[in-house]
Design a protein that fits this description.
Layout lengths: L10 E2 L6 E2 L2 E5 L3 E5 L2 E5 L1 H12 L2 E9 L2 H13 L6 E4 L5 E7 L5 E5 L12 H8 L3 E5 L8 H10 L6 E5 L9 H10 L2 E5 L2 H9 L5 H11 L4 E5 L5 E5 L2 E5 L12 H14 L4 H16 L15
Parallel strand pairs: 3-6, 3-10, 4-8, 6-7, 10-11, 11-12, 12-13
Antiparallel strand pairs: 1-2, 4-5, 8-9, 13-14, 14-15
Length: 310
C-alpha cells in the first residue's frame, strides 16, 4: 500500500525500523476506564495517540475533561506519557468521562459508558483546528459523536483536515451510541475505515451491504470511497482491503490479560505503517503484533517494547 507520502528525518519507528516525521491526531473521547483492578486512562482517540507516539509518530489528543480531580489526573497522565495537553479543553461544569469495565473469563470487556460528560461538550476551538490542519493523519470514531455539540465539532474538524492527509474512522459501535446517519456522515469524511467482526454485521444491515464478508468489504470501499478497509477478528487476526488488494493475517494464540485498547493499538500501528509507505501485508502483520502485545498486559496503554521482526 502506498501512502500519500513517506516521511523521513524524524524519530525512529519501532515497527518498521525507519525514520519518521509525521503528525497524528486522535479526536474524541478521553476518559478513565474503571477496571476491576482500578482505573486506567482510556478512550479510543487517546489510546490511539499514545500508541502512535510510542511507535515513533508525533501525536496529540483533541478532547475535553472536567474541572475536577479526575481531569487533573488525566492532564498529569498525558504529561507523563509525553503527550501535549494544549488541545485538551476543560469544561467548567460537566464531569470527566468514565467507563465502567467488566471483564469476562477470556478477558473480553463489557463497557458501561456514562453520559453527559465533558467530552460530549467538545467545542470547536482554534487550537483544535490548528492541530488537524497540521496533521498527516487524524483518527476519530462514532462514540464521541453520540450527541451535540461534540458531533458537530468532530465533523467540522474532519472537514478542516487537508485533502492529502489520512482520515481514519474507527467505528467503535458501543451500546446504542450510533446511528446510520452518523456512520454515513463519518464515512464521507474518512478515507480509512476500521471495524471488528461483531460490528460488520451491524454495518452491513445499516448500509445494505450484501454477499460474503469480502464482498461486503469491497462494497463498502466502493460505495463510500475508502482507500483502506480494515476488519479485525480478535484471535483470528485481521483482513485488510485496499484498492483491489487483500492482506490477511491469521492471528496467533496468546495468553490474554485483557483486550482493552488492543484495537486502538492496532489502529496506531496501521496508521504508522501507512504513513511509512509500507506494503499491505507488512502493515497487517505488524499491527497484529502490537495488538497481541497489548492483550497480554493490563489496561489500554501499557508501555510498548521494541518489536523485532515476527
Amino acid at each position: 500500500m502506498e501512502a500519500n507520502a513517506v516521511f523521513t528525518c524524524g524519530t525512529r519507528c519501532k515497527l518498521f525500523n525507519c525514520d519518521m516525521n509525521c503528525n497524528v491526531v486522535g479526536v474524541g473521547e478521553i476518559l478513565w476506564d474503571i477496571l476491576p483492578s482500578g482505573k486506567q486512562l482510556g478512550g479510543a482517540p487517546a489510546n490511539f495517540a499514545f500508541h502512535a507516539r510510542a511507535l515513533g509518530a508525533r501525536s496529540r489528543v483533541i478532547s475535553r475533561i472536567g474541572q475536577d480531580p479526575l481531569g487533573v489526573e488525566i492532564l498529569q497522565r498525558l504529561q507523563a506519557l509525553g503527550l501535549p495537553t494544549a488541545e485538551i479543553q476543560i469544561d467548567p461544569s460537566a464531569p470527566t468521562g468514565t467507563v465502567s469495565v467488566e471483564l469476562s473469563a477470556d478477558g473480553q470487556p463489557r463497557f458501561t459508558i456514562h453520559e453527559d460528560v465533558a467530552w460530549d461538550r467538545l467545542a470547536l476551538e482554534k487550537a483544535a483546528l490548528t492541530a488537524v490542519a497540521d496533521a498527516d493523519a487524524v483518527a476519530f470514531g462514532t462514540l464521541a459523536q453520540r450527541r451535540e455539540p461534540a458531533r458537530g465539532t468532530i465533523q467540522a474538524l474532519l472537514a478542516a483536515v487537508r485533502s492529502g492527509a489520512w482520515r481514519i474512522l474507527d467505528l467503535n459501535l458501543r451500546q446504542h451510541y450510533f446511528s446510520r446517519d452518523v456512520i454515513e456522515t463519518s464515512l464521507r469524511l474518512a478515507n480509512i475505515v476500521k471495524f471488528n467482526d461483531s460490528e460488520l454485521p451491524v454495518l452491513a444491515e445499516l448500509l445494505g451491504l450484501r454477499g460474503s464478508m469480502r464482498q461486503q468489504i469491497e462494497g463498502l470501499a466502493r460505495q463510500h470511497t475508502q482507500r483502506l478497509v480494515c476488519l479485525t477478528r480478535g484471535a483470528q487476526g485481521s483482513l485488510l482491503y485496499s484498492e483491489g488488494q487483500w492482506a490477511e493475517d491469521p492471528g496467533q494464540t496468546i495468553v490474554v490479560k485483557d483486550t482493552v485498547g488492543a484495537g486502538d493499538a492496532f489502529t496506531a500501528a496501521l496508521v504508522v505503517g501507512v504513513l511509512a509507505g509500507k506494503p499491505l501485508d507488512a502493515i497487517n502483520r505488524r499491527a497484529n503484533q502490537v495488538a497481541r502485545y497489548v492483550c497480554t498486559r493490563e489496561g489500554a496503554t501499557p508501555p510498548l517494547p521494541e518489536f523485532p521482526d515476527p
